[in-house]
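Lab notebook, bench 4. The sequencing result for the construct came back, and we need a structural model before the next group meeting so we can plan mutations. Quick request posted to the team channel:

Model the 3D structure of this chain.
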Amino acid sequence: MSVRKRVRSVAARLLTEPPPTRFTGDYASWEEARAASGGYDEQAILEKVTQAALKVKNGEAVFERDSVLFDSIQYSWPVLAGLLWVASRSGNSLNVLDFGGSLATAYNQNRRFLQHLGTLRWNVIEQEPFVRTGRELFETEQVRFYESIGACTADTDPNVALVSASLAYVPQPYVVLEEIRSQSFAYLIFDRNFFSPDRDRLTVQTVPPWIYDASYPAWFLDEQRFLAVVEAEYERVAEFEGLERSVALAAGTGRSKGFIFERRSDAP
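Done. Here's the predicted structure in token form:
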């Protein structure tokens, strides 16, 4: 089967099958959730993501997300609108800190609409194996890879932080959120963040084997607590539904949401 036929097959499956992941449990700690998950082969996942990203780079596929190939780009239009809005308010310049950005998925997703900008730089913050692969195979003048927020901001001065589908997968999401806020970026864009209806909930996410065989802890954050942290220094400009929309939990229904924030002029 050709690459394009396989891509169409996977895309059709995504449209016709139930949601591709399951979230179960309500755990008291990250360690407890890790013990209840099956874990994952980090190297195998990295290799699968790398091969998919290389197909996009080489023109064999149009778009990749989480190692799944698509024959058309799956846009998050609110995120793209937010990025262009930031650029329009920043002298036609966009310097993005992309926290948890894999191998620059979001850059490849949106670059057609961003290449006209006077200045465009995309800085991916990822785990060390992804950074090593990114630097070896995907780094360009516009796309750079870093192992930490601090390493990035020591090298360049981003005007917007993009946090997409990543805050749920760190042991201490509020510590990361505080670190992002402390950098005083002019704008923040959050996409595909999971929220619980009443409080912080720690679940185990199970990925179907046809994507890759893995399960790991995943946070559903208390939306009001999240907003209280960010809005201490930022004004909410917009909010929108994320790709997953609603997610079934052991108790209630979680939501996938996004937000765009602008730093307040009176912020310390």
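DSSP finds nine helices and 13 strands in the chain.
Will bring this to the meeting.
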